[in-house]
């Protein structure tokens, strides 16, 4: 009976603590952007403790395909909350934008996106990527952004989107962290000047690690020196490791154009 009572008390504590955690408000503000063509893009924004005499780095975070939709919440499920911890907001004050890709759309506009040897980026951006780039430029106008410290990162579909954004806007970004994404290696030379740290799981069943291996080889051939972490015995959830790595955060925020 005593053991049963202890189990019940433990269960009550577990449920109550998780209920409290669920009620803790996110530090990301709800926002909506309307583009020049009238299209809308939901996004969330994390801001530092503003000092108007300073300028801040801007981080763009692109979520994966499972977080698409219109609730303006799902994009915070993986990775980006690591930028909002007490420790990281203290060490690396920044403005962080997490847009949400609408359902059935993609950040990237590519053909053969599942084949590491045949993937090709198409000439025009997707509607969602076009809105992301417009949003970046509007944020630069509206907030005290250090334009020499604009960073982009994303996981899975957002990893593809990270490459897509760089390839279409090679002078915009100071650094990038693509996580378990893929890209057209024929475009590597155009982004070889951008510092990158690429992450992937060696046993990824959804996005082959060969995408990242091929991109690293192409970047090195173009004269770049990208960081590359291939996690052994890790599948698609390599972002759990990447975004919780304090060395990655420290590396990212010391990059300048």
Task: Characterise this structure.
There is one protein chain. The protein is an alpha/beta fold and 257 residues long. It has a single domain (27-253), classed as Rossmann fold (3-Layer(aba) Sandwich). It is built from 7 helices and 10 strands. It has helices at residues 2-23, 86-91, 127-142, 157-168, 210-221, 239-242, 246-253, and strands at 29-34, 40-46, 56-62, 95-99, 110-111, 120-121, 145-155, 175-179, 197-201, 227-231. The chain has a 6-stranded mixed beta sheet, covered by helices on one side. Strands 5-6 form a two-stranded antiparallel sheet. Strand 9 (197-201), helix 5 and strand 10 form a beta-alpha-beta unit.
Topology:
Blueprint: H1 2-23, E1 29-34, E2 40-46, E3 56-62, H2 86-91, E4 95-99, E5 110-111, E6 120-121, H3 127-142, E7 145-155, H4 157-168, E8 175-179, E9 197-201, H5 210-221, E10 227-231, H6 239-242, H7 246-253
Parallel strand pairs: 3-4, 3-7, 7-8, 9-10
Antiparallel strand pairs: 1-2, 2-4, 5-6
């Amino acid at each position: 009976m005593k053991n049963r009572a202890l189990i019940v008390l433990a269960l009550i504590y577990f449920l109550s603590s998780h209920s409290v955690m669920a009620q803790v408000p996110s530090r990301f503000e709800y926002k909506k952007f309307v583009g020049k063509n009238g299209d809308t893009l939901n996004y969330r924004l994390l801001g530092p403790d503003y000092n108007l005499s300073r300028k801040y780095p801007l981080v763009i975070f692109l979520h994966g395909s499972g977080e698409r939709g219109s609730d303006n919440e799902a994009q915070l499920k993986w990775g980006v909350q690591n930028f909002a911890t007490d420790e990281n907001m203290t060490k690396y004050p920044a403005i962080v934008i997490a847009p949400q890709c609408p359902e059935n759309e993609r950040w990237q506009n590519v053909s053969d996106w599942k084949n590491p040897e045949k993937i090709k980026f198409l000439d025009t951006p997707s509607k969602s990527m076009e809105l992301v780039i417009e949003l970046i430029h509007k944020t630069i106008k509206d907030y005290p952004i250090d334009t020499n410290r604009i960073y982009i990162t994303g996981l899975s579909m957002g990893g593809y989107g990270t490459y897509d954004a760089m390839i279409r806007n090679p002078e915009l970004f100071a650094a990038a962290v693509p996580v378990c994404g893929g890209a057209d290696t024929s475009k590597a030379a155009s982004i070889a000047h951008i510092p990158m740290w690429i992450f992937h799981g060696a046993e990824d069943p959804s996005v082959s690690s060969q995408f990242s291996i091929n991109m690293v080889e192409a970047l090195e051939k173009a004269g770049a020196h990208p960081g590359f972490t291939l996690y052994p015995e890790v599948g698609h959830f390599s972002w759990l490791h990447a975004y919780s790595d304090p060395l990655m955060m420290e590396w990212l925020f010391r990059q300048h154009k």
